[in-house]
Structure formats: structure tokens, C-alpha cells
């Protein structure tokens, strides 16, 4: 069963989200705040495939704090943030903490379900790989990408990747030296039907550079192609 955790303190919005996800075939778990969301994850464990988190929840754990904690626990869980139009910096902050995507309020049921579908597909694909004992590796220079553990080795040193970061790196490794447009990366990783903003690509590239580059401000491996996107240089 496809299971989604919905953490939203406004009951009307939470019920709206839950109703539409149930109509789309998802089993839903509900939390009214961040503390409750983490307790549910403690109890349900790997059953939760995707967490939909409102950023502005009251209490010790707002959406960003929950996002950070869930990503610390798991690289495979999908995370979507619910944000307001005025929360531009929070959107970027959430992506830097490991969120896969965000949906800006107010949103339509079709947009919400499309975003959840896209993230769930990635989670399901990785779960199928793990169950199948997929162990293939891709080598590029002094980097080794492990397709089973979704991890990266640099000079033998492990670098953990979120599922989005992993898919971007896999795309780079499959196209070494090729200039890949932001739109190409967006469609490859987030799906053909994704209609979010291209800056989500830039934020994830920034995260990757912080993990793999010796000098993130002057990257040698993930190189900017001005006016287009990025390319991978081993």
C-alpha cells in the first residue's frame, strides 16, 4: 500500500490534502504538528513512503525541523513541503535540508497529487532496486556511484546522497562531459509531467557541490554551463 504522512496544523487544509490523496489511491497518516509526525514515523517506520509537511507548524518541530530529522533518518523517504508564496527562503532552506519538492499554497488537488505521484514513483523505484539486490556500480574518475545503496564514493570515502541527488548523479555519470539543461535534468529526475520551478535543480546542485567538491565555490566536477545548465567532469 502506498502510504503518505500528512503533517499540517490547520485541520481544514489537512483534511483537504488527505481526502484528495485517498481519492488518488494512497493510504494516509495524519499529524497535527511536528512532534506527532515524528512519533508516527517512529511507530510506522519504513511503512511511510512520502511525508507531506507544512513548513509553519507550531511547537518545537516545524516543517523544516521535521524535514531535517526525517532526512537524517532516511535517504529514501520522499519529502514534500507545503509553503506560502512569501516563504521563498524557507523553500530553499527546505530543499537544502533534503526535501524533494515543495507545493505553494494555495494549490489545486491535481497539482498536489501530481507532485506526490512523482516523488512516490522515485521512492518505489528505489525500493524495487533494493529488493532485487541491485549491486551495479558506475565509475567516473575517482568517483564510484553505487546503484544499490544510492551512495557515492570519492577516493574511497562514502558520501551519502538523497534519492534526488542520487538520480542527478546517475544522470551525470551516464552523460559525462555533456551539457545537460535544467529542463532535461528536471524531466529526468522529477518526471515528464512535473510542472514546478527549475530552481529546484539549482538548489540540489548546490547541495551536491557542498558534498563532493573540494571547493564548492569553484567547482571542478559539476560545472555550470552558462545559459543552459550543468555538466559532469570527472
CATH top level of the largest domain is Alpha Beta
Q: What is the residue-averaged pLDDT?
A: 89
How many domain units?
A: 2
The number of strands is 12
User: What is the N-to-C succession of helices and strands?
Assistant: EHEHEHEHEHEEEEHEHHEE
Low-confidence stretches: none
Tell me the helix content.
Answer: 40-55%
Q: What's the CATH H-level homologous superfamily of the largest domain?
A: Response regulator
Ends apart, CA distance between termini:
40 Å
Q: What shape does the CA trace take? A: globular
Calculate Rg over CA atoms: 18 Å
Given helix and strand content, the structural type is alpha/beta
Proportion of residues in β-strands: 15-25%
Largest sheet composition: 5 strands, parallel
What is the CATH topology descriptor of the largest domain? Rossmann fold
CATH architect. name of the largest domain = 3-Layer(aba) Sandwich
Spatial order of strands in the largest sheet: 2-1-3-4-5
